[in-house]
Amino acid sequence: MFDTSALPPFESLVDVSKTSLYISLAAIAFNPTFWNIVARSEYRSKTITKIFGGNAYYGCYALALTIFSLGMVRDALYHNALQDQPGSDLIPKAIAQPLAAALFVIGQTLVISSTWALGVTGTFLGDYFGILMDHRVEGFPFNLLSDPMYDGSTMCFAATALWYGKPAGLFITAFVYIVYGFALRFEGPFTEAIYAAKAKREQKRE
Fold it and tell me: For the packed helices 19-45 and 167-205, what is the interaxial angle rounded to 10 degrees?
């Protein structure tokens, strides 16, 4: 049986008194909440499309730029939070840093290859704008994972934590995993409903 008494106390690994920790967690929670709310509003009321004079593509590109920018801010806040957190040699650098490098490469590969396979509109909620793909993407990396973008992003959070030897980063990574899990509970069924409606329309035409 694993002896947990050998582990250092939680407060020595994660400094919960740092405001930057909570700002990072808030940014992580905000981003998927924001894009789900905005995308559903677009689907139901064409909120963004109307702003761009009825052009769904312009609206989708604008949302894509917004989501990408929010992601950059989130990542910067995460790095800032790690700087305020205590380091630890719980996992030796000789192990942690090669593992971090491997995780980061795999994570980035999943994110970039997903974006390449889906395109801009497929990646950034184009289906909510009525910009639907002709068929489901089944090639790499979707032949390996159901949600490679979320999985890859989570890996990159973990990689950063391991590289800098910051246990708080692994705590934040666990929060990322939970937040993405909740987001998928909303996104998955809603997206399936959009394509089910498309299939019904096509059947009626036939």
Answer: 0
Low-confidence ranges of the chain (pLDDT < 50): 1-2
Name the residue among 57, 80, 60 with its Cα closest to residue 68. Answer: 60
Q: Would you say 170 and 158 are in contact if contact means Cβ atoms under 8 Å apart?
A: yes
What is the DSSP secondary structure assignment for residue 87, as one 8-state letter? P
What is the rounded distance in angstroms from the CA atom of residue 81 to the CA atom of residue 85? 7
Within a 10 A sphere around the Cβ of 180, how many other Cβ atoms? 19
Yes or no: say if 85 and 169 are a contact pair by the CB < 8 Å rule.
yes
**pLDDT score, position 198:** 72
Contact by Cβ (8 Å): 122, 137: yes
- End-to-end, the C-alpha distance of the chain in Å comes to 64
Q: pTM of the full predicted structure? A: 0.89
d(Cα 123, Cα 64) in Å, to the nearest integer?
8
